[in-house]
Amino acid sequence: MLVKATFAALLTVMSLPALAATCEATIESNDAMQFNTKEMVVDKSCEKFTVNLKHTGKLAKAAMGHNWVLTKAADKQAVATEGMTAGLDKDYVKPDDARVIAHTKVIGGGESDSVTFDVSKLAAGEDYAFFCSFPGHWAIMTGTLKLGS
Description:
Layout: H1 2-15, E1 24-29, E2 39-43, E3 48-55, H2 61-64, E4 69-72, H3 76-84, E5 102-103, E6 112-118, E7 128-131, E8 142-148
Parallel strand pairs: 1-3, 2-8
Antiparallel strand pairs: 3-6, 4-5, 4-7, 7-8
């Protein structure tokens, strides 16, 4: 009897739709100037979204540092170009740049950092880009972020 009740309860739980959206993602970077994903989707039911950046390489941040920067796709090149002059101590992001929705610190091999942002900053139908703003990396280390259903 207990086995039947346990099995019935398990079937009930397994048939329920997933109620909670995943409001967090992990992305990895490496010494070959690559992210391990080219697309991220943020569920619109999330109030906040957290990106965890991990550098799986071995090189120091001054030599092969990476960050994760989120902007509208149309702003990516200008934000990356202007960010170069900000320098490593400012994570290659121009201070108080209103075009930057979120960004992590620049990290080196074996390090990690996270950033959490308000999903309300994203608009349905808008094209968003994430990229590494370390000089010379933004054209290769890039991807799209979408506001999902």
